[in-house]
Amino acid sequence: xxxxxxxxxxxxxxxxxxxxxxxxxxxxxxxxxxxxxxxxxxxxxxxxxxxxxxxxxxxxxxxxxxxxxxxxxxxxxxxxxxxxxxxxxxxxxxxxxxxxxxxxxxxxxxxxxxxxxxxxxxxxxxxxxxxxxxxxxxxxxxxxxxxxxxxxxxxxxxxxxxxxxxxxxxxxxxxxxxxxxxxxxxxxxxxxxxxxxxxxxxxxxxxxxxxxxxxxxxxxxxxxxxxxxxxxxxxxxxxxxxxxxxxxxxxxxxxxxxxxxxxxxxxxxxxxxxxxxxxxx
Length: 281
Prior knowledge:
It is built from 9 helices and 8 strands.
């Protein structure tokens, strides 16, 4: 599987060409960029233009963009109005949020990418048929807007009642939307389990989010090297290899003071995951 690194690793910092070059120099050929305005301001045409020029001259590829979760530059700390969710049932508010996501998709006009990663709802959100209808309406608009720019939307399994593997399959069944999935190992571990959620989602998985946690909190730990992770990685990697041609091996990690040189640790994590197997467990 191709190695891809998410910029979630440095999401609290401004995304720089220097960091992207370090990723490429580490032998990682592609990235996923996390759309957070303190990191990459999709409203800042100057920043997007600068990154676009660099990507055109670089061998590093932009595999995917993660849709924005907040409209502010403070990771939502400016207040509840900063939250972006396509399950908003008030039409005017939902239109405002959809427009915000469209600004992020427009990055594809300067830096082509294949996938936009989209959540349905927010953490621990309860199920509601009204929210399903709102998400359907939003995704109809977003899918058309994205396809016109060569982008496909992937829905992610996240810890809420709208986005378990089973709920995502139900959502596609009732809406008839032809969308695919990104499979998040950490989120599945917090939910019904990696094997169960993978089995439900496997036919439509087109990308991955690989990270670890303790089964209780979404910590985005470095697999196989960070303390506190409880995912069975040999078993998980055997499972992921069963569909290896469908997706790259994409790490979505959180910066940690335990790893002052994270890119070096990322290389080690890739190596360990690629060589993890049940026979050696």
